Structure formats: structure tokens, C-alpha cells
Automatic annotation (TrEMBL):
The keyword NAD does not apply. It holds the Pfam family Glyco_hydro_1. Its EC number is 3.2.1.86. One of its GO terms (cellular component) is cytosol. This is 6-phospho-beta-glucosidase. The active site is at E372. One of its GO terms (molecular function) is 6-phospho-beta-glucosidase activity. InterPro entries: GH, GH_1_N_CS, Glyco_hydro_1, Glyco_hydro_1_AS. The keyword Iron-sulfur does not apply. It comes from Niallia taxi. Gene3D superfamilies: Glycosidases. GO terms for biological process: carbohydrate catabolic process. Keywords: Glycosidase, Hydrolase. The gene is ascB. The lineage of its organism: Bacteria, Bacillati, Bacillota, Bacilli, Bacillales. Belongs to the glycosyl hydrolase 1 family.
């Protein structure tokens, strides 16, 4: 059976991790620009430490990243050579509206993405565009408090209307917010939120989440009005939780943790706050300030498909103070003794992808789209820049096979697969360059050293063959 003939194979990046050009083309400052590499990164990402501008003594990797702003033609040509059917990228909001609250967009920014999309189409590549991949103009954070402020819904709607109008016919696949559930774990990164001393942080996070959920539904409405061909998806940082043991308390804890993530997608896909979420919010004295029209917009403008990232499964226990923890995507989890881990401690679990796909498809009955999956690893190039990354091929091959099993054996409907960081880029979690995901090596180090030269890794030709055979040949030959 295998994948459909129009299955969308490709790769994924985010503007703030690859674009650079932070003050070129009229672009304004954004939250993602002012997050440095180093020990303070986590406290800034989580909104505990305020950093609203560049400060002495820090290195800010997003300023230049891998300078795709000037290299996109070269990079897209390489994606075309691999045979990409789609390329997932994101818009830098402050490139379109430098401050975020202007009435008119920045033409230079609009033209940049228009040229980029046209370059994709030259190679038969369908753009898959994330409207907001953690980007928020700094002006909206300083003047309005980020997504805690309802006014951001209006600014976001203006952005969406401009994008859907300008790129009609160039882009038909859209994602509203990247990993929307990360607002709970990285609120400055996910929603431009910094906390004031003594305020109820959970209240602030869930109110901001409500604003993003309403904005997402508004975007879906506008997209379908401007072009009925548009397909709009939500995006979840996914991974099913395993109970640490078969103790009923551990099983219940895993269910609760899953629900904590599904809550966002339940709203975006089913159109209403689920009963369990309303009960949980009430238990925690969280009161969402909701307008009557919010109920209608959420109900009537649900997403067309469910997209998600998957890197590793997670483990939950009712009592987790005495169990070993390991790293995960922006937050830690309990270590699973049955799994190997990456160099960054992320647990490698291909079957977990199949389990997660089944959980999501059973729950929503909408097409899925895997828009992030990959292995962050230290690559050691030879003198010509070539990397023999068999470990990456092994990881991706096992996960693509699991995806295939979910389709062939379980009947899951899936639109496509874009591996994360198809070209080396800056890590969102750590700010490092040495944590590499790509099929293409970029000569760039953690603190900006290097020539930015692009070199194909061994995995480049492997993935090209995977796409050519529509996922039938996964061998490392």
C-alpha cells in the first residue's frame, strides 16, 4: 500500500533559527532575537528573566543564524536536488510588521517571502508556512505585554489577512502557531510573556493561550474566505506519555499529562474547551476572560489538519521525585530504561511515533502532518566538510518506517513528513549550532565562527532516495 502518490516529503526550518538578517529589509526586533546562548537562556525563554534588548557580554545566535536571508536561493536549490515536495518555513512577523501594530505592512519584507516562495515553486516545492514560529515583535511585548493582551488578536488578524492576500496562489498550506502547547513551558518564547513578581503565572499563561486559540480560529476563517483552496493546520509538540509503571496512579498521571497537551488541539480541532480542561482550570482558580463571540469563532472555524513535532516519547509518574530524569524538547521527562538516548539525552523511540500518530488520529479523525522529526547530533566533518552521518540515517529510517506502519497497518491518514532542520540551524532549546539536524552541513559554530559554506552530508543522498521511492527504500546503501 505505502504512501499516497501525492505524499508531501520535505524538510522544516524556522525563520528565527536560520534566517538571520535581523535588521535588514526593514525588519524590526523580535523576542527570538534577544535570547542568547548560555546559562541565562532558559530563564529568559521561560519569562523569569527580562531581556528586551541586546546586552553586553552575551552572544545572540539568531542575529545571523545561518544567514538564509542571503542564501535562500542556494539552499532551496539543494532542497530541490533532494526532491522535496514541500518546504516548511516560517514568517518573521517583524519582517512584515516591524513593530507589530502598524496599519501598513513592510513591502520589503513581503517581497522577500514572495521571492522565496517563487523560488520554491521553481523546483516544484509546495511551501508549508508557519505564520508564527515563536516570533513576536518586541514592540508588542514592551507596549502590550505580549499575548497576555487581547489586542494581539487584532494585530495577528491583520498579519494573516496581509499574508493570505499577498501569497494567494503561492501558498496553500498554513500553520497558525508553532507548538502552541509550549506556551506552558516557554512563555516568553511562545507568547512574549515575562512575569511580574507575585502574579499568578498559570492564569497569565492560560489567558494568553486563549488569545492565541481565538487568533488561530480567526486566521482559519480569514484563510478560507480569501482562498477556499487554503488548508490550515494547528501544530502540537507531541509525544504520548507512558506510565512509569502499571500502578493505576501512574497510568492516571500519564493520561493527565497527555490531556495537558491535547487541550490546545481539542479546542482548535473540535471547536470548544473540553470538559476536563474547564474542570482543571476551575480547580486551579484560573478564570479565562472570554468574550461571547470567542465561543462562536472557536466553534465555527476549526483546523483542516493536525500537524505536530515528534522527537521522543515521554514518561509520567504520580510520584516522580525519586526517579531519574532526562532532557526532552524544551522540558525534561522521566528516563525510560528501555530506550537509548541522543547526545542531548532525548530518548529515541520510533514506535512511540506510531503510538502518538494513532493517539492523535483516534482522537481527532483529521489528516495528520508530521512537520518536525529528527536527531540533534554532533557532526564531525572531514577536511572537505563531508559528514558520514549514519546515526542520523538510522534514526530517520526507523521513524519513517514507524510512520509507514501507522499508515499501512493502522489506517492513519497522513499528508506529509518534513524532517526538522533539513539544513543545519540554531537549536531553539540551547541556542547551539553544534546540535545539528540537517542533511546539509553549514560551516558555522556556536559563537558565529565559520564560513557559512554548505556541504551535503551522507544523509542528503539517502533522503533523496527515500523521496524518489516514496518511502519504499529506507536502506542505508
Amino acid at each position: 500500500m505505502g504512501f499516497s502518490k501525492d505524499f508531501l516529503w520535505g524538510g522544516a526550518t524556522a525563520a528565527n533559527q536560520c534566517e538571520g538578517g535581523f535588521e535588514q529589509g526593514g525588519r524590526g526586533l523580535a523576542n527570538v532575537d534577544v535570547i542568547p546562548i548560555g546559562s541565562d537562556r532558559r530563564s529568559i525563554i521561560t519569562g523569569k528573566k527580562k531581556m528586551y534588548n541586546f546586552e553586553e557580554g552575551y552572544y545572540y545566535p539568531a542575529k545571523e543564524a545561518i544567514d538564509m536571508y542571503h542564501h535562500f536561493k542556494e539552499d532551496i536549490a539543494l532542497f530541490g536536488e533532494m526532491g522535496f515536495k514541500t518546504y516548511r518555513l516560517s514568517i518573521a512577523w517583524s519582517r512584515i510588521f516591524p513593530k507589530g501594530d502598524e496599519l501598513e505592512p513592510n513591502e520589503e519584507g513581503l517581497k522577500f517571502y514572495e521571492d522565496l516562495f517563487k523560488e520554491c515553486h521553481k523546483y516544484g516545492i509546495e511551501p508549508l508556512v508557519t505564520i508564527t514560529h515563536f516570533d513576536c515583535p518586541m514592540h508588542l511585548i514592551e507596549q502590550y505585554g505580549g499575548w497576555r493582551n487581547r489586542e494581539l488578536i487584532g494585530f495577528y488578524k491583520r498579519l494573516c489577512r496581509v499574508l493570505f492576500t499577498r501569497y494567494k496562489g503561492l501558498v496553500k498550506y498554513w500553520l497558525t502557531f508553532n507548538e502552541i502547547n509550549m506556551i506552558l513551558h516557554a512563555p516568553f518564547l511562545g507568547a512574549g510573556i515575562c512575569f511580574e513578581e507575585g502574579e499568578n503565572e498559570e492564569q497569565v499563561k492560560y489567558q494568553a493561550a486563549h488569545h492565541e486559540l481565538v487568533a488561530s480560529a480567526e486566521a482559519t476563517k480569514i484563510a478560507h474566505e480569501i482562498d477556499p483552496e487554503n488548508k490550515v493546520g494547528c501544530m502540537l509538540a507531541a509525544a504520548s506519555y507512558y506510565p512509569y509503571s502499571c500502578r493505576p496512579e501512574d497510568v492516571w498521571e500519564a493520561k493527565k499529562k497527555d490531556r495537558g497537551n491535547y487541550f490546545f488541539i481539542d479546542v482548535q480541532s473540535k471547536g470548544a474547551y473540553p470538559a476536563y480542561a474547564l474542570k482543571e482550570l476551575a480547580r486551579n482558580n484560573i478564570s479565562i476572560d472570554m468574550m461571547p463571540e470567542d465561543i462562536e469563532i472557536l466553534k465555527n472555524h476549526t483546523v483542516d489538519f493536525i500537524s505536530f513535532s515528534y522527537y521522543a516519547s515521554r514518561v509520567a509518574a504520580a510520584e516522580d521525585s525519586n526517579v531519574e530524569k532526562t532532557a526532552g524538547n524544551l522540558f525534561p521527562t522521566i528516563k525510560n530504561p528501555y530506550l537509548q538516548a541522543s547526545q542531548w539525552g532525548w530518548q529515541i523511540d520510533p514506535l512511540g511515533l506510531r503510538i502518538t500518530m494513532n493517539d492523535l488520529y483516534d482522537r481527532y479523525q483529521k489528516p495528520l502532518f508530521i512537520v518536525e522529526n529528527g536527531l540533534g547530533a554532533i557532526d564531525i566533518p572531514d577536511e572537505s566538510g563531508y559528514v558520514e552521518d549514519d546515526y542520523r540515517i538510522e534514526y530517520l529510517s526507523a521513524h519513517i518506517q514507524a510512520m509507514k506502519d501507522a499508515v499501512d497497518e493502522d489506517g492513519v491518514d497522513i499528508l506529509g513528513y518534513t524532517s526538522w532542520g533539513c539544513i543545519d540551524l540554531v537549536s531553539a532549546g540551547t541556542g547551539e549550532m553544534k546540535k545539528r539536524y540537517g542533511f546539509i552541513y553549514v560551516d558555522r559554530e556556536n559563537y558565529g565562527e565559520g564560513t557559512l559554506k554548505r556541504t551535503k552530508k551522507k544523509s542528503f543522498n539517502w533522503y533523496k532516495k527515500v523521496i524518489e521511492t516514496n518511502g519504499e527504500d529506507l536502506s542505508n546503501q
